[in-house]
Amino acid sequence: GESTKLNPKYKGPYLVAKVLGNSRYVIRDISDFNHTSRPVDTIMSPDKLKP
């Protein structure tokens, strides 16, 4: 198999579009960065985000 040691640990950058209750955030792709094949629009918890 392939080693994951040198793979990036984080993806991004993303835009925090909205702050929800219970420490949840709606994140979206930044329009100038087309780094994914599908647009990202999802809800994340703060332990999965990096400043």
How would you sum up this structure, described in words?
The protein has 51 residues and is mostly beta strands. It has a domain at 14-48. 0% of the residues lie in helices and 33% in strands. A 3-stranded antiparallel beta sheet has the order 1-2-3, with no helix packed on it. The radius of gyration is 13 Å and the shape is globular. The relative contact order is 0.25. The mean pLDDT is 86.
Map the helices and strands.
Blueprint: E1 14-20, E2 24-29, E3 41-44
Antiparallel strand pairs: 1-2, 2-3
Short characterization:
The chain has 51 residues and is an all-beta fold. 0% of the residues lie in helices and 33% in strands.
Based on the model shown, name its key terms.
51 residues; mainly beta; three-stranded antiparallel beta sheet
User: Which whole number gives the mean pLDDT?
Assistant: 86
Beta content comes to 25-35%
How many strands, what sense, and barrel or not for the largest sheet?
3 strands, antiparallel
Structural class: mainly beta
Number-wise, the strands total 3
Determine the N-to-C terminus distance: 32 Å
Gross morphology is globular
Total number of helices: 0
